[in-house]
Input
Amino acid sequence: MSRATKQKQPEVIHWRLHVVIGFVCLFFVSLVARAAYIQVVEPEKLRRESDMRTLRTTSTEVQRGLITDRNGEMLAVSVPVRAVWADPKVIYDNKSVDDRRRWQALADVLQLQEEKLLKRVTINPKRRFVYLKRQVTPAVAEYIKKLRLKGVYLKAESRRYYPAGETIAQLVGITNIDDVGIEGIEHAYNSWLTGKPSKEQVRKSRDGHVVERLGVIEEGEQPNDLVLSVDQRIQALAYRELKKATEYNQATSGSIVVLDVHTGEVLAMVNTPSYNPNSRDNLQSFRMRNRAVTDTYEPGSTIKPFVVAAALEAGVVKLDEIIPTSPGWMRIGGRQVRDARNFGDMSLARILQKSSNMGVSKLSLRMPVEQLIGTYHSLGLGNYTGIDLVGESAGIIREQHRWSDFERATLSFGYGLTATPLQLARMYATLGSGGIAYPASILKLRKPPKGERVLDENVAHELIKMLVGVTEKGGTALQAHIDGYPVAGKTGTSRKAVAGGYGDDYVALFAGVAPANNPRLAISVVINDPKSDQYYGGDVAAPVFAKVMSASLQMLNVEPISPQEQSRLAAYTRGVR
Output
């Protein structure tokens, strides 16, 4: 009988089971320990590291405020553009420069040399930011986006555009590439025009998309618009006429200021030579100066009406008094004061009509010099006009204890002191308003300002009537005459000072108000250094005044003088001669 084989049962290896269970327990314990370490021991560190990778601060885009004229015409507006920038580290890591065709296309559209462009993005591979070009147009930005160059990005920004161009360039000014005002109104009111972007904290994913908005960090401020007192129609007209006059007379420069007599608002302020603020390629600093407020000139005979005003207010002359000026010259302190010819006995109106140096010198010598200088100061000479523009000059009136008789005489016909074109226009606006001086304003006013009486009302009205004769037959400014609008104004021609005295260069001036029966506008015209055959104010500046004043009054729908008022004014003019 064979032996039956006995089957063995499989035996369990206990040590292997124990090893597996041990590893599982160890792994579980380590997970629990790591979780406890993360959540209990150092949770803030890991949160901080996570936030460094995902938290970002974003800001809203805020464009600069608009600048408009008094009628809503755009003078300065911000347009959206893009900045092209690069991350050299990303370019290096992705070997982006190997794709030379795309870099050549980028260089072409940015109008840069390819070698210089590549050098800027490869010279420092650890750098994280470099501008390639600022203020590119949206069309160029779209083309760059299609190139899909690794490490090249676009950033939104704005560029200032000036629709009025050179006609108002010095007044409005310009901004720099960072949209900060650096000249003119843009600089003076930079904080008002500049808004403040709001800042918001967000969480972004690895691909740069916002996945969570966590809240506003800093509230922003909206920019403010600015409405100027300027009427762009008058501004463009004045610039056109001034440019023609300076070119025709081969003058170095020129300025015109147009003021509203009853408010002091500047309706036009133009200068030549000018520049195009939308093209900065060949910008010359002397073209950017607002000469109407920065440059000063000896006003010459334009100051004479205010000598008459000072004499009348001081009581040293009567309205109907006759002043002897024969023989047409006199010697004062070893020097001579003379007229163009011997005018004989003259009324006050005729002194102004003929621009008599003899007449105003005698009036000046009758009164204390403090009376004359005080009148000049009260009318704004030697003081700021209140216009609040950067670079404004106050002009010069010398302060001294002793004045010679000759110095007192020269003060009466516009030498020994300086004034800006704006100051000159403001003085005549004061006459037109009946003796009330208003601060000059470049901003459109919501309500009439409070003025200060600086001249007796009757004296101001009488002077206006006298000055009408200057632009009528027998006066020195026939070319300032305007049919339908009687003009009260005064010519001026002053020699330019040089080292040791006066040279052979001149400044031609004319300032006045119209219509004389009910003054609305005051205008001063200054043509600096005309080199043509004519250089007198009545020949060079007066025609410009007439064209600008006539067209401006028509634009403002100012009614011409009636035949009855014209007759009364003409009768007065004839009667005081």
Summary: The chain is about 35% helix and 20% strand. The mean pLDDT is 89. The first strand starts at residue 55 and ends at 59. The radius of gyration is 38 Å.
